[in-house]
Structure formats: C-alpha cells, structure tokens
C-alpha cells in the first residue's frame, strides 16, 4: 500500500459526513466518538511512528515473525476484507464496518498496542493487521493477569527416577533430547511491575514467552471498544468477528511444520512438535508435554497430559481384559451349558415356546448353538473377576491422576490460578447494567441482571435440557417399538418351517440377532443426529444464562452436554441390560407394550450378548465418525482452500498468510475432545462386565487419537489461543461420578443380565450331591433346570401359533423358574426362583460394599499431592514472601522507632501519645 492509500484513508477520517444522508444511514447520529477518550487517525499520524509504519510492504521473508523493521515481534494477527473493493447492496453496512474497525484499531493504539498493516500477496482484497505488544504494555498486563514468572532457579534436589536403571531401554521411548532439551526449573511468583528487579530477567525479548504475549494480546483485543452509543460501550474482538468486521484473529505459528525455519530468532517449536510428537513415526514415543504447554498453553498441555495418562493406565486394563477374552474363547467349547445347548440329545430335543403371537413357531433349543458359544466368551467367571478388577482400576486411575496433575500444576505455575480473581468475560461485562453490593468487598459492582432475572434464565436452561432428555427417551421408546415390530417380522419368516422334524436352523442369523444389529445401527444414527442438534441448543442456553467467567461458562456447558450425552449414548445400553426380558411373564399370559406389541424376551442365554453387540457397534461407529470429523474434514477443507488460492511459484507467501489458509479453531476448543474421551471412559467402566474387550478397543483408539489430535492442531489448524488451566475442570467430578456408578452397574449386570448367579446357585444348591463316598460337583443338567414347562393347550386364541403340524407338540419350554402345569401352583414362581433372587441381591450388596471399601482405603492411602511437590510449593511461597515483600518489611522497620518513656508525656490528667508517621 503506497502513500496515496495513506492519504486517502486519512482524508476519509477527516471528512465530515452529511447528517441525515440516507446512504450513510445517519451513522454520525448513532455513534459518538469523543476526542478526549480516543485519538482519531488524524491526530495519531503526525509525528507518530505507529502510523508511519502502519501501512507497510511485505519484506519477502516467508517465516518472519516480526514487523518490517525486524525488531518488533508479531503477537497477534487480525484479518479483514477491504470493503472498498467490494460491491455492497447497502452502503450503510460498508460504512458501519469501516468505522467500527477504525475505532477499534485506534482504541488498541490508545491502549499502547502497536499495529502494522500489510496487503495480501494472494488476494488483494485482504489486509493483515500485525499486532505488537511493547515491553511496558507486556509488564502492565502480566500483572493484571497474575502471570507467574521466574524469580530464582530451583535449588531443591530432584528425586531420582526409579526407572533410571533401565534408561538404556526407556530413552528410545522419549523425544530426542538433542532436539527438545530439558528446560531449567525456576521458582516463580505473580509478576509485579514495581518489583521488576527481583525477577530473573536475562533477556527482555524472551522473558515473556510467545504464548504469554499472545494471551495478553488477546486479553486487550477482547476489551478494546469499537463503538459507543450514548452511555453504552461495545467492545471485544469476538463481536467484530461475528459481525464480519474482521475475517479472522489468531496468533502465529512460528514456522512451517515440516520445514525448519532459518529466520533469526525463530525457536522452530512447531517443527519440533511435528517431528517428535505429531509425525506418525513417533507414535511409540512419550509426549513432550513441557514443549506442548510452552507452545499451546496450559489448557492444551493438561488435556494431552490427561489423555496420555489415561491411555497408559488403559494398557493395564487392556491386558487383563484381553486375558479374560482369551480365557472365554478357549473355554467356549468345553463349557457345560453350551455343550448341552448344542447336544442333539439335549438341546435338539427341547422344544421352545414361540416368542411372538400367532406367526412365530416352535423352535429347537440347539438352533441357538452358535449364539450360546459366543455368549460363553463373555459370560464366564473370568468376566466377573475382571469387573471387580476394573472397579479397583478406575479408583487407582483417578487417584494417581490427581497426583500427576498436582505435579503438573506446580511445574506449570497454575497452583493458585483459580484462587486468583479470574477476569469476567467480555460478553458478561457488556451486559452489566444493574448495581449490587459485593458480599466480599462491600463495594458496589455492575451485574447484568437481578436475582429474579438470573433465576429466570437458569430455569429456562434447566427446562430446555429436560425437554431434550425427554426427547431422547421418546426416541428410545420408538426404537423399542421398532425392535418389537422387526422381531415379529423376522420371526414370521420361519413360520413355515417343517415342524415334523424341527431341524435346527443352519443360519447363524437368528431373529434376535437380526433385530439387535439393525436396532443398534438405527440407535447409533439417532444418537449422532440428536448430538448435532442438541449442541447448538446447549450453546444457546449457556449464552443465554450469561456466566461471568470463562471457567463458569465452560463448566455450565460441560454439565449440560454431558447430561444429554449420558442419556443419549447410554440409555439404549441401560434398556438392554436392565429392562429387556425382565417383564415378559410366561407364554400363557404375555405382557404387551402399548396393548399391541408383545414385550421382548431375551435369548435363552440371556441378553448379555445383545448388550455386547450394542456396545461394540456404538464404540466402533463413534470412533470412526469422530476420526472422519477430526482428520478427513480439516484435511479436505485445507486441500480445497490451497487449490482455490494457489499462487504463482515465484510469489513468497508470508507466515501470517500461510496460517490464514489453515482451518480456524472451534470456539469450544477442547470441549469435544474431552467429551469424546469421557463418553468412552463411561463405556469402558460402566458396562465392562459385558464386554471385556472394551479397554482393548479404547486403548487402540486412544493411541491413534493422541497422534491424530497432535497432527491436527500442528498441521491443519491455526495456532490455538494459549490459555491457562489448573486442571481438567468440570470433567474431574464427572469422572468420579462415573467411577462410583460403574460399581453399581457392573454388579447389576453380573446379577441381572448375565447368567452367572443362576449358574452359581445351581452349582452350589442343586448339583452338589453325594455320589458314593464323595461329592460330584458338576453343571450337568443346568440348561434343563433353567427352563420351565408350558402346556400348549393353555395358549390363548390370540397367541396360539398358526403354523401347521403343531398338533403333536403338547408342551414347550421357556426361560423362567416356575412350577409346571398340573401343579397346584402351576405357572407361579418356584423356590429356585427365590433362591436366585436372594443370591443376586446378596451378590450386589457384598460386591458393592467390598469395592467401595477398597476404593475408600485407596483414596485415603494415596495422597493427592506428592510430598516432594508440597515441599517445593512451600519453598516457592517462602521465596516469594522474602524476595518480593522483604523491601516493604525493611522500610517499615526503618520508619518505626522504639517507644520510650519520653514518647509519652503527661498533660494535666490525660496522657497524650506522640503520633508516629509512617511513610510507606
């Protein structure tokens, strides 16, 4: 941009727009720009270095991170499209955006920020505004944001790692130490501008890291005004982005991810992260968490630390789960109950009652031979042991994570982050029109609404969330009706089977399996659709509630989304585990849903295999869908963007324009990443008794997920805005709640969904009998004992099978413990049923108490903060007190004089005390 452009812009600033001009929409009557508050471009340009360098040509350095002078570092980039080169239907929009942008940029200069503009080398309509924070401004806002900075190197000896003896092996699993060097540890303290000499400053240019500088720059951008209407002041870059005044706002990557920069002063941290973290060849290496935190901020760092720790702990659970699966697979052929089902002399002679009315036919038990073998893989004694193990594992995971998180809090200077006054969100500050007395400070402060208004907003939010949860339950009910209708349809396909021979079905697909698979797929589709719709609703509700701080905003949104996702993902699993097949009565008096559909029954082996099918489909489908969204979509969008904006080979594209072509970071940031992992954590813990391979699938997914997320944010997205975070926020209590609930759900799955307790009752009560001079413990006869007898003449006309050749069948069997026909209490529950119920309740109570007691002991024994970290925190607080506040203490000591008898003089009958003035 040349001198003519400068003169044109300045003249536009100086000219007076006609009042009442319809083309201008009477802009000057709506917007007031008081000169005493803000300088205009006309007043800034004369003798100002900022304006002289504001419009500069690109210096042809592709990876430059500085202004054209090569000295001032770029801390943020703003991008806008020049309206002068566009055709607007209404000139009012053009003028309003231009004036808001000019006012906003002038506001930034008034706050001490330096700006420089450069035209795009690809699209002449685009202009890039480079933002620089001078040293004095950095010091001011470092104090405002309570940023902790070094005061002294850490002089405490570090404890030697217990794995140091295996360093010749473990070193291959860590990033290359020659590329990513271990940084020096420092004791830190909140920055104070007036005590600058007490901080450990070697070089002012690197004292504040690029992530700190970007965070402070964004803080200013979020609070700089862009318009004043009377007493109402509008401010914040987010509003300007939403209104189209700016196209983008982002901090810069320091170089290309796959090419090391040769520019002076470039740390090449992005390149190092790609080589040692995001590249597929580094999948086996530990994550460079300190470099991740330094480049992307603590919030990104704590997420990857948690994900890595969770994946590491999953490895142990996956090994035990895989062992249980192998045990079940090896014993499926030798299982007594599966042998009896498949035996032609036993299962082949047992005629089962129809599972639907009229069109369903009788069937042989051995037709479910293959399903029975598959069930034995998951429903065995090893699975019960694994469920208890996972209940202990989840406690160890949470307790050890707390310790690891405490170490990271200290190392990353976030120990007292939440204790400090977190600044209010700009959206909150903009709506503050009421006054109230602060109960802590006693000072009147502005708030956006009254107590009644807040209650109204919260009530609207709660009501909306409940409505959507009821909508999910309605969809689950619809899927249940679908299951009943489809099962009826599939079963009717077998009604013409020749019942003279009643040969077993040769197909592996039974009506139960076909119904389960199709219903699971439909349930997954419904889940995905409802997720997309509800996300927008949850964001709208949270914005309407107007939380004060960003932490409050994220916690509120997290709670809403998780409650919805919990019901959405897990409700179908809870239905199969605890509702299906529990209220079916017996063939003579079946239970009907909606007065039309006969309630579903479980397979003779139970509903556990169907629950396993549901879990495997949802977990696999969710992982595939998320990876498509996270990997394929950004890559395709960037590919299209590069194709549409390709330039001639001789043109040099600057760093800020390269980043602009990348994908913008979502406003929700890491929310979706956490939500995805927490939902997976629920599948791994809540229903692990039915699917011991869940930790194996989760481990494989997470190993891929870590590198995918790393590759995505390093190569496909603009640099994420660095943010502080002390911990994983609201996700921590959610994980603890899931861990507590998992004990109850797994105990109830073993008791009510699997066939484990009835087998144990049979084994200890009915199969142990004296045989000669010893006891013969066997499971033989269990299948026969678990099936009750029904007289076919007792069928009602509405449920009697219509198939021919059924006249020779006088009795059939069904899964229950009831007295046979002819008994004086026929079709009522027998004594075996009550034994089994008592055993189930006793098992749940005993297991829960043992596991909860173990969890309590472990949580008490394992301290949340390691002893070494406690020592370092105390040492740091001591140094902060001594170094930063010792000056004031000495000054007070100097000014104070010891009291003597001369200091107190009698006057008449009163004693007068000499006043001592203290000059601080």
From TrEMBL:
The keyword Glycosyltransferase does not apply. It is found in: Cell membrane; Membrane. The chain crosses the membrane at residues 303-329, 381-401, 465-490, 510-534, 677-700, 734-753. It is a multi-pass membrane protein. Residues 66-289 form the Anoctamin dimerisation domain. This is Anoctamin. Keywords: Cell membrane, Glycoprotein, Membrane, Transmembrane, Transmembrane helix. It holds the Pfam family Anoctamin.
